[in-house]
Amino acid sequence: xxxxxxxxxxxxxxxxxxxxxxxxxxxxxxxxxxxxxxxxxxxxxxxxxxxxxxxxxxxxxxxxxxxxxxxxxxxxxxxxxxxxxxxxxxxxxxxxxxxxxxxxxxxxxxxxxxxxxxxxxxxxxxxxxxxxxxxxxxxxxxxxxxxxxxxxxxxxxxxxxxxxxxxxxxxxxxxxxxxxxxxxxxxxxxxxxxxxxxxxxxxxxxxxxxxxxxxxxxxxxxxxxxxxxxxxxxxxxxxxxxxxxxxxxxxxxxxxxxxxxxxxxxxxxxxxxxxxxxxxxxxxxxxxxxxxxxxxxxxxxxxxxxxxxxxxxxxxxxxxxxxxxxxxxxxxxxxxxxxxxxxxxxxxxxxxxxxxxxxxxxxxxxxxxxxxxxxxxxxxxxxxxxxxxxxxxxxxxxxxxxxxxxxxxxxxxxxxxxxxxxxxxxxxxxxxxxxxxxxxxxxxxxxxxxxxxxxxxxxxxxxxxxxxxxxxxxxxxxxxxxxxxxxxxxxxxxxxxxxxx
Length: 501
Hints:
Layout: H1 29-38, H2 40-50, H3 52-63, H4 67-80, H5 82-85, H6 88-95, H7 97-116, H8 121-137, H9 139-148, H10 154-157, H11 160-178, H12 184-193, H13 197-205, H14 213-218, H15 222-233, H16 236-250, E1 252-255, E2 258-261, H17 269-278, H18 282-300, H19 303-317, H20 322-338, H21 341-346, H22 352-377, H23 385-417, H24 423-452, H25 454-475, H26 484-495
InterPro entries: MFS_dom, MFS_sugar_transport-like, MFS_trans_sf, Myo-inositol_Transporter, Sugar/inositol_transpt, Sugar_transporter_CS
Keywords: Coiled coil, Membrane, Sugar transport, Symport, Transmembrane, Transmembrane helix, Transport
Transmembrane segments: 30-50, 70-89, 101-123, 129-145, 157-180, 186-209, 287-310, 325-346, 355-377, 383-406, 427-448, 454-476
């Protein structure tokens, strides 16, 4: 049991990205640079998922693999990510959020290189397995950003990883389009190899990032935590108030005029899982159900199929050439990326709940429109231009509404509602559910379309969103403007009959 080493210095900070400027109102700029660096992990996840959208066209031709093998290879990375998402909580609690990001950069560097030099299906699967571990580890970026963000701007900053995911998807689509005219045996290899480059920037960037102040508190390093909180909040008084609140949640008390860490049973790994899953309080139970439900809905809404199979969807709608298919996919990625700025600008003003409700409404309407368009296409030998345009517009509206609400808010809401002592493991569990559902959806899309038709597949996704709308409307409390330590109290209050809003 290690005693905390409290520091008496409150006006200096050894981290180059946090420049002291005290006695001012909270300003996100002190947390912005570290949040941006951490978000590169999410950018890499987006790239390594999205790149398969176009690469699969050339892989299939070059290595002569079947549609079923392509379907599995494309979606299995989400299942492989379980190896990362279920261990990232233990790793980030043991070595810290920052060092876990460094480890993530190494895995991201190795995975795509293995895949791009593969000459058979086995080595393709090995490369995707390694990449999948890194994708599972991306949860630490979301935890880190949530823990370094001041409450007033947390909605903006916690949206950065989601922006990065979408930027990564867009870069993947652009790479597909840029390398489409190269020889088939070279094009997909370059597409995949390019995914190792940002991993270098992430690895280097971790050396200038501050550690999460909340993790430092959990380890009893109160002096360092106070320094970082002071720079984030802009006020020594505000930092002290936050420190007291975080210490209480982390299980630290004052004894014999010295700060000491009470290593209570919930800080042990098995007790953390017991408190999270087996014997949770009513507030924790409600948080876990809410978080896992949101993670399920995000992927069961079908977003993974549009991300990974947009060329096939546009082919069903009437487009034919590879360049047209990949060009349309670039527009999808661009729309998905641009609209992500809506929740960044509005979540701290109008609230998470309102954005989720409007997002789900638009997504369901867009999927119904897409299903109708694809049904009509079947009545023509050559699809009229207006139907092709309507289907493309429906896809763009769908991904736009997703980016404007459900996508970023799901992750932001999850990372801010899980209490400090359970956050790393809780977010690992949340990402595990997210990735498993995504894997199931993407690995069954082609088969489901053959069984019930592509139109009815999208109707099914719309129905799932409809049920989710009811859950969000009646069950989700608003978290806008509340500190991470206040939110557990909010859920407990709601459990006892408090207000939804």
